[in-house]
Amino acid sequence: MNQARADAEGIVEQYGRDGVLSSESLASAEFGVWDRLTPGVLLVMALGIAAVEDPSFVERIAESDDTLLAGLISGDLRAIELGVEDATKSWDQIVARLVEYVQRPDASAGTLDVLLSEAEELWFEVLDSGEMTRPQMRDGEFGPWDATETPVSAGVERLDYGVLRVPLLEGAGMHPLMAGGRAVGVIVSLGDAAFSVQAFRVPVGPAWRKTLPKIIQGIRDQGGTAEEAESSLGSEVRARIYVVKDGQRVLQPTRIIGCDGPGWLLRGSYGGPAALTDLVDPRAHHLFTQTVVDLSAAEGQADATQEITNLEIRWPTTE
What we know:
This protein is an alpha+beta fold. The chain contains 9 helices and 12 strands. It has helices spanning 3-18, 23-28, 39-53, 55-63, 67-73, 88-102, 111-129, 208-221, 282-289, and strands at 145-146, 158-161, 164-167, 173-179, 182-190, 193-201, 225-231, 234-245, 248-261, 264-271, 292-293, 309-310. The model has no long low-confidence stretch (mean pLDDT 86).
């Protein structure tokens, strides 16, 4: 048995014994790391397999109004982690449900071992399939969307910032992205990571492919590293950018993404430990592909003859 499976078993046993997820279990699970096999990945996949194998299990989850687990079972990973420090409640729910399943009266002694074994096989199948890395933007299922379109995911709750309507993630902090004394975007705090999004008016498009080399060169000119790559968010820049933390300049792993729309360019930046992996943080993917751009809210802001212009958002006085 590999270490990831051994740790996953230990986490389930610890929760079953104590009735609460310990800080040690939370840390050892490596939740939120999706580019390799971890105890957290195994626990998530095992819960999904349990749901497939036992429809009555899903029914009980639905009856309990457990939206977190209902979303997870349907393949929606975005709600389950806001960084280790903020995720205890969410992961408690996941491990609690898995413990409930393996400890049910008709379960065999080897149920957990079988689930984790199947979860390991399934995860490698998912990675090998390329499904997690194929581009998923403006394809009928994912945006970003223009306000004149009818988003497929119209039920997504969004916060209205004028030019931008950004999905709401429960527990995430929202802050203005400032440039020249103007609020030009939204920063979403995600525990140990952060995601920012801003819109630009583009008179002649598409523009993202044209701006990629300039972004890369600009980062290199400032002493950082940058290269072009591909992910589920299309062509992107993976970089290490100098930022100031605790009074010191440090290189921060950063993923810079972009998408062309009718008359606009939406740009996003994800900074955090997992920014340079092939797999995109599901929260970042959700935030970017479910953002709506509304150029009608930017009337009079910029001369349409200019090359590319960043647009001011409307920051609410109260959240």
